[in-house]
Structure formats: structure tokens, C-alpha cells
Amino acid sequence: MIGLELEGVKFAYPSREILHGITFKAGSGEILGIIGQNGCGKTTLLKCINATLKTSAGKITVDGTDVSVLSKREIAKRMGFVMQTASTTFPFTVYETVLMGRYARKGLMESDSEEDERAVYQAMRDTGIVKFADRDIDELSGGERRRVMIARALVQEPDILLLDEPTLHLDINHQFDLMDLITRLAREKDMLVVLVTHDIILAARYCSRVIAVIHGRIGAAGSVEEVFTEDNMRDLFDIETEIREDARVGRNITIIGKYHGDDSNFEEDDPLDKGEGHEGKGND
Predict the structure, then answer these.
(1) In CATH, what number is assigned to the domain containing residue 46?
(2) What's the distance, CA 66 to chain centroid?
(3) How far apart are CA 231 and CA 212, in angstroms?
């Protein structure tokens, strides 16, 4: 049973503070979704969790061990991190790309072993990409490349998988395929998955718990039912929604449009309702 705990975590760049005292706990088998608008600190939070960024205050522990005292190799044994985009400088094959993830389990000058090969093929089987093993990664589609990067994280044999916008730029059927894969990995490998996403509909369908970040603070946290309410969607995203339970998919969110607050005030401020901008105007 893995345990991730954040207590009063803050992070600041020289010009401004991004995270303001983030506190939560998560454990094995969970899919913890982190949602929020652009610039609220979601990706920064992921980078603090795996110590890519150094926190300015607070504490992050994995099974009671402060991540700030761990080496990069030790962190990589505990956490796999899949970024939004991954570029390759050279035309590596899929097999070679996945094999790169074994660096955390090997010595600096240690040759590839049979154990490494078994781990790579197991990760490729888990993610459904064995058939691409000898293909150049640059030949693959966006969804296929995303699976390769998840496989590369899996060969690290981590207890925690950190995913930054895993469905970004994927068409809808590949989004569902990828989220089904993530759900299966969390269940079968008893992993903790922490994923950042803008997609509230997918988050409501696939996450077991959700944290909503607003201006670097936790605005709402809890179960899908607790976080995804019509009031929270207005407060967090400035959108009007209709939310109901659906026996087929669970929490079902229909996005109606942007929330304008008091409708009467919105209409009063509309220049078209006052006839402004029409008199004396021809076609430009």
C-alpha cells in the first residue's frame, strides 16, 4: 500500500507565488484527478510531487519519506511521470524508447539484461504497443505515442504514475481508450495514478477522487459527487452545467455555456440591446 501525502505545499517563482499551501493524501489503487483552469498551478503541483521543482514551503512524502531527500534515481523508482508532450531528438524505435525508462533500475554503465527485456515487453503488452516495437516512434499517431510514454514510465516499476493532460490533442475515441487503459493499470497493478486534466467530463467518469485547484489553492476536494456540482462548476470554471447521475456512466455533466452571473445585468450591459453601434453605420 503506497501513501502519498502533501502538507502545506507552497511553490513560488521569483516574480510570484504559484501554490499556496496544498494539503492532501492519496493511496494505492486510486485515480486522483487534479482539475482547474489554465495557470492555476496544476502542472506545477505535479512537478513538485516528483521533485522536478523544489517547494518553497511544506512537505511531500511517499510512504513517510520526504521526496526532497531522495535522489532522482530513487524518485524514478517510486514515480513515473508522463508529460503533456514528449519529443525525441533522434529516431528511436518504440522498444528503445521504452527501454530508456529502465535507467532507474540499472547502474550507470550496466548493460541491458534479460530482466530489462522482460520488463520492456511486459510494459508494451500492458499498453498494447508490442506490434510497434520495431517502428520509429516518430511514425506513430499521437495516441500511440502517448501509450509509448506510459510504457516507458511503467518499466520504472513505480508505485505512483503522474500524468499531465494524458488525453490532450487526442480524438474522442482515443481519449476513452487511454482512460480505460489508465483505469486498468491502477486496478491491476494497485498503482496510485495522479492525473492533471482540463476535461471535467472524463474526470467525472474515470477518477475516484478529485481535487480542484483555483489560484494555487484547493477550491474543492473529495469524491466525484462532492466536487462535480453545478455550484462548484460556476465557482471554479465560470460555466453553467447540468449534472445528474447516469446508470451507464456515473456522474454525467452537460456543459450549457459560460456562466454570466445575473442574467438581467448581463443583458443590460449588452450594447445590441440598447441599439448602440447601428445608427449611421454602413457596411465596411
Answers:
(1) 3.40.50.300
(2) 22
(3) 13
- Ordered alpha helix ranges (H), 131-260: 142-154, 172-188, 200-206, 224-227, 230-237
- Containing 147, the helix (H) or strand (E) segment is helix 142-154
Round to whole Å and give the CA distance between 166 and 180: 12
Digit-coded pLDDT (tens) for 42-90: 999 999 999 999 999 999 999 999 999 999 999 999 999 999 876 666 7
- φ, ψ of residue 55 to 5 degrees: the values are -65, 150
Number of domains in the chain: 1
- Asked, for residue 268, whether it belongs to a domain, the answer is no
Note down the domain range covering 152: 3-227
Query: Cα-atom radius of gyration of the chain, to the nearest Å?
Result: 22
pTM above 0.85, yes or no: yes
Q: Is residue 86 part of a domain?
A: yes
Does some domain include residue 257?
Answer: no
Q: Is residue 114 one of the residues assigned to a domain? A: yes
